[in-house]
Design brief:
By secondary structure, this protein is mainly α. The protein contains eight helices and four strands.
Length: 217
């Protein structure tokens, strides 16, 4: 076979490989965009390098896959919900302290669900895999919490922080029923779980109810 024919074949192979590589990268980008939503754009902007940002997001997914993140038992979820109601009422007289308490409470919920506690940015990165739509609220609220501790946040800043914390708290507060004991002779009939209703009030005074799904083990 003539040399020029081999050259054409080699060029064609290189082109085909390049096309497949580009298509694969585009599919990977599309998957990450769907998974992380606004967190994808934030990470790309922060990194100023699309490939580095996507590598970081894939690494977050790997770290998250190694964790055993579980929903809360119903009674524990109800306890956390009541604590949230208490700190919202506290906001009226002690807004700074309420915001600090909200940050602590959310950390406790994360820990109860199985997220490792430690460096804040590491926590936020892991949470972004499961809750990409609200993780930026968590970052902003945590920043206000730092200013609150130094008495440098306005009441409006604090109110906004509490609302931002609430968006993540509501998503984190997934509950499940404790497993029912089964009779070896006749297993109990399955009944659909009824959602637990948790009232999450705006710190300005209005209240709204959000349903927290019960998940059976």
């Amino acid at each position: 076979m003539a040399t020029w024919v081999w050259i054409l074949i080699a060029v064609a192979v290189v082109v085909v490989v390049a096309v497949f590589a580009v298509a694969a990268r585009q599919r990977q980008t599309a998957v990450l965009r769907r998974r992380f939503g606004p967190e994808y754009d934030r990470t790309v902007e922060a990194r100023q390098d699309k490939q580095a940002a996507e590598a970081e997001l894939r690494e977050r997914e790997k770290q998250r896959a190694q964790l055993d993140i579980k929903p809360l038992p119903a009674d524990e979820g109800a306890r956390f919900a009541q604590e949230w109601q208490d700190l919202q009422e506290r906001f009226v007289d002690e807004p700074s302290e309420a915001v600090v308490a909200a940050d602590v409470l959310i950390s406790q919920v994360m820990q109860a669900r199985g997220y490792p506690m430690g460096d804040f940015e590491a926590q936020a990165s892991l949470v972004s895999v499961d809750h990409p739509a609200v993780v930026e609220n968590y970052r902003v609220a945590h920043g206000v919490r730092g200013r609150a501790q130094e008495q440098q946040a306005t009441t409006e800043d604090l109110r906004e922080a509490l609302l931002r914390y609430r968006s993540l708290f509501t998503e984190l507060l997934e509950t499940r029923d404790e497993p029912a004991a089964e009779s070896p002779a006749e297993p109990p009939a399955e009944t659909p779980a009824e959602p637990a209703v948790v009232t999450v009030s705006d710190p300005t005074g209005s209240a709204e109810e959000s349903e927290v799904p019960n998940e059976r083990s």
